[in-house]
Specification:
The protein is of the alpha/beta class and 282 residues long. The chain is built from 13 helices and 9 strands. Strands 1-2-4-5-6-7-8-9 form an 8-stranded mixed beta barrel, surrounded by 4 helices. β8, α12 and β9 form a beta-alpha-beta unit. α4 packs parallel to α6. It is globular, with a radius of gyration of 21 Å. It binds ligand C2E and magnesium ion (3 copies). This is Diguanylate cyclase (GGDEF)-like protein/PAS domain S-box-containing protein.
Length: 282
């Protein structure tokens, strides 16, 4: 049997697979170089506060300015960065850039915006994370209250006790924590209660089919009530239509983020957008 499996394994390793493996190695090498040379830029997607109608925060989303292929989205390189551990230095770059940008906007007299930064599993588990966050805040001279780290349910649930400890460590720096892609994982009410979180971000898969799927609307409303019970603000991601926005506002969702308001934008475009909002409001 073992012999047979061995033969199969050999037969299954086709030239196409060899090609894939080679491409992956090339990609890893490119990514390593990109981290060394810092070929990354951040785009920022606004979050609108329902109560005031104002943009009160942005989420930083990394893009790779690839020398040949142009601007690449995180979906094509974050998983590889995670797999290789390159997410740790990349995450450090992202934290620095995000803190610097938040401080720069403040220096230019824009109303202060909360800056959300995504943290992936590998980064969160690395013991250097807290010191990287502290050093990014310090070198940008940014008040920690403006930085929010977005964690995902799945990464926290791998080791609940360890995660709670790490979260408190981060909280002690003065930053806030949000649970990203909420609803896709398995946190129970009793564990969720123990996390020192400020916000829940409803996964955009629950928003996408509003109003066609009553089940998704019920889940969304339930998450908003859950937020109220646990004293957490709720952010809806992936809001694309007026109808979705109206539903979410009616349900009591505090913050909305999505293409309806703005796509992730380069920093300069955020500035004009905010300036416009301020002028309109004043
Ligand atoms: P995420 O944190 O859940 O970010 C939201 C994603 O939804 C972003 O995709 C954003 O462009 C997209 N989005 C926002 N509004 C809409 C909408 O109305 N409709 C649709 N269809 N999509 C919308 P993006 O920028 O491609 O990022 C994908 C994921 O990559 C992020 O999901 C996050 O998990 C990860 N990521 C992005 N930047 C970083 C980073 O700096 N570090 C780490 N570790 N992960 C990152
Ligand atoms: Mg996020
Ligand atoms: Mg999300
Ligand atoms: Mg996501």
């Amino acid at each position: 049997r073992a012999k047979e499996a061995g033969r199969n394994a050999i037969r299954l390793f086709t030239p196409a697979m060899a090609e894939d493996a080679r491409n992956k190695l090339i990609r890893i090498e490119e990514l390593r170089r990109a981290v060394e040379r810092d070929e990354f830029v951040l785009h920022y997607q606004p979050q609108k506060e329902v109560r005031s109608g104002k943009i009160i925060g942005v989420e930083a989303l990394v893009r790779w300015q690839h020398p040949v292929e142009g601007l690449l989205l995180p979906g094509v390189f974050i998983p590889l960065a995670e797999e290789t551990g390159l997410i740790v230095p990349l995450g450090e770059i992202v934290l620095r850039k995000a803190c610097q940008q938040a401080r720069l906007w403040q220096d230019r007299g824009l109303p202060s915006l909360r800056m959300g930064v995504n943290v992936s599993a590998r980064q969160f588990l690395e013991s250097s994370l807290t010191s990287h966050v502290a050093s990014a805040l310090q070198s940008a001279d940014l008040d920690p209250q403006w930085l929010e780290l977005e964690l995902t349910e799945s990464l926290i649930m791998r080791d609940v006790e360890g995660a709670i400890e790490r979260m408190h460590e981060l909280k002690e720096l003065g930053v806030s924590l949000a649970m990203d892609d909420f609803g896709t994982g398995y946190s129970s009410l009793s564990t969720l209660r123990r996390f020192p979180l400020s916000r829940l971000k409803i996964d955009r898969s629950f928003i996408a089919d509003i109003p066609e799927k009553p089940g998704d609307m019920a889940i969304t409303s339930a998450i908003v009530s859950l937020g109220r019970t646990l004293d957490l603000e709720v952010v809806a991601e992936g809001v694309e239509t007026e109808e979705q926005a109206r539903f979410l506002e009616g349900a009591g969702c505090e913050l909305l983020q999505g293409y309806l308001f703005a796509r992730p934008l380069p920093s300069s475009e955020i500035e004009s957008l905010i300036a416009g909002t301020v002028a309109k409001a004043g």
